[in-house]
UniProtKB/TrEMBL annotation, chain A:
Official protein name in the record: Electron transfer flavoprotein subunit beta
Record has Chloroplast as a keyword: no
Family (UniProt): Belongs to the ETF beta-subunit/FixA family.
Domain of life: Eukaryota
GO CC field: mitochondrial matrix
SUPFAM superfamilies: Adenine nucleotide alpha hydrolases-like
Main location: mitochondrion
Automatic annotation (TrEMBL), chain B:
Organism: Amphimedon queenslandica (Sponge)
Name under which the protein is recorded: Acyl-CoA dehydrogenase
Domain Acyl-CoA dehydrogenase/oxidase C-terminal residues, every copy: 271-416
Residue intervals passing through the bilayer: none
Family stated for the protein in its record: Belongs to the acyl-CoA dehydrogenase family.
Gene name tied to this protein: 100642145
Amino acid sequence: MASLRALVGCKRVIDYAVKIRVKPDNMGVVTEGIKHSMNPFDEIALEEAVRMKEKKIVSEIVAVSCGPPECQETLRTALAMGADRAIHVEIKGEEYQGLQPLAVSKMLAKLIQNEKVDIAFFGKQAIDDDSNQTGQMVASLLDWPQATFASKIETEGSDTLKVMREIDGGLEHIKVKLPAVVTADLRLNEPRYATLPNIMKAKKKPFSKMSSEELGVDIKPRLQVKSVVDPPVREAGSTVENVDELITKLKDVGVV
Amino acid sequence: MATTATNRTLAFLTSSPSLSFIRSLSATPLLRSNVKISDEAIFTSEHVEMRGALNKLIEKEINPYVDEWEAARSFPVHSVIKKLGEGGFLGPTRDPEYGGLGLDYSYSIAIAEELGSITCGGVPMAIGVHSDMATPALARFGSDELKKEFLAPSIAGDVVACLGVSEVGSGSDVASIKTTALPKKGSDDLVINGGKMWTTTGTKADWMCLLANTREGDPHRNKSLICLPMNTPGVSVAKEIKKIGNYSSDTAQIYFDNVVVPRKNIIGEEGQGFTYQMLQFQEERMWAVASILLPMERIMQATVEYCRERKAFGKSILDNQVVHYRLAELETELESIRSFLYRLVGLYVAGHDVTKLASMAKLKAGRLTREITDSCLQYWGGMGYTDEVPVSRAWRDTRLLSIGAGADEVMLSIICKLSGTLPK
Ligand SMILES: Cc1cc2nc3c(=O)[nH]c(=O)nc-3n(C[C@H](O)[C@H](O)[C@H](O)COP(=O)(O)OP(=O)(O)OC[C@H]3O[C@@H](n4cnc5c(N)ncnc54)[C@H](O)[C@@H]3O)c2cc1C
């Protein structure tokens, strides 16, 4: 089975540990000067591809990121973790502000066809916009089967994946015929750290850059963002002296 | 009465910031986060990538346990060193033949700086002693055999190293050490007698880079650095020293009673130990400077946020000009140390002897950390004097910088010596 070609989507997002701040104009969140890293679910997807390569199921891993020049850092991480090649689809400024899952999916689908990919790995969602759409849209654009929220992946024969999915109230086991789209859930694996020797080796791996025009994809936004606001702040409570006072207070607000 | 007391307690609690608020501070972005590291003169995108990978390891394998280790006055040095070794973080500059990557010293400095994201001083210090203080002379002057036996497994993280220079009677005055390692008649062995003091990781390390007198005579030409396996009969831990800070790291007093090692365990040339140690100190000092940059930024950032929330006399503490001006002053000083360090590392990488500049930077860094932690602690008021906040730990831990790796006064005397201003 060692001939499978894998593509992994690696989105650059605001680091999970950073406190998100809404921009004063309420049209997005502050991204300048903020620590970014690879979407954690994409890291899991990449780790799975690398493990399949180590087991000689996958022969080549192409990492892709669509976005500003800084995405090259994300792709470098991917190469250091074990991807063989990286493709950066550069999208800058305003265009990137308005970039939506459908446009990204179209670009990815195009690359998947160009690269003759057998398995496309994505994170189940990106932790910035939490859209949870890209994997599914890519599958439908290509008319491929999809196994979303994968928490375990095994191969069966030369053209089938057995995937365990986490669903409400339990686990679901499905089989998908290749080529297919798989999206990674949190418990699929624990991604490795890039080691310094691999970081240095990554420097020599092929890295290509292209534009959305070269892919022939129209990336104009189809959705319009009206406003972005902070979630409501939890109001401070107050301390009561005794049970009687508590009951009075509860009665005042009409909950008892 | 009872009610009044309770009321006062409650009033105290509500007017003090909640612990969860204080804890949340450490996760906030740093002051400098908008400067791209790869735009700094000595760093490249590989340095950035490497720091990112190391940071992940720290956030996952080290920081969640730091409070526990500090309380236990001990941390699992072998497993931490192993994880760092697997990541390739313990010997980037060393020869690939022994597991290194043959990179220049800027990589070691980038690692030292990133180790500053560990939320205490003891753990990074033990790591630094292992990777950058006990091994430079071995890597540079050691025989192939010694490097295979001691350097390669240290780089891989399979064994842990310590450095035995200071003694009960000699700290600043390294040349005056009393420990001897003299030829054993009729054999190719050395017999070691004496003892070491202040040995970081001394209770747990697998081998020591030991400075000892290998003959009589001129104290600058009678010493050698020796690789000493700590399980050799006659090596014993006299005591573990209780300290005011760096709790996670153990500090030991060690005795040597007729300890026998082969003569071939001498690093490089016999009699050159003092010179090698002085060279080895350059890297130790640059490492020490790099290691305080992030902790100081973090403490200042936490102080800004605390003072912004904390109100007195109808405004935030931060709104007092004396406070925000002072913090601005300290931030400026810290950035000048960073610039100094980067310049110094650039020169070192280019092949210059940086003894004087490294001593200057270490002197400045020691003094500045004392000022920063003291000023910041002051602005936290009573909270600063508790064990609950990061500023008090930083204040305790970083006090060492003006003492260890050569005290401030020793740095001054080196600078004077190299400037030719010492009285003849
Ligand atoms: C936590 C910790 C960890 C350490 N780890 C190690 C280790 O792993 N390996 C190791 O070998 N050592 C280690 N040390 C020892 C450290 O390097 C020494 O403490 C340091 O060099 C100072 O030596 P001393 O303590 O003997 O002070 P002393 O030499 O007694 O000096 C005391 C003070 O006198 C003053 N002084 C000294 N010389 C002069 C001078 N010429 N002019 C003016 N004033 C002067 C200075 O203010 C100095 O602080 C460690 C120390 C500590 C506290």
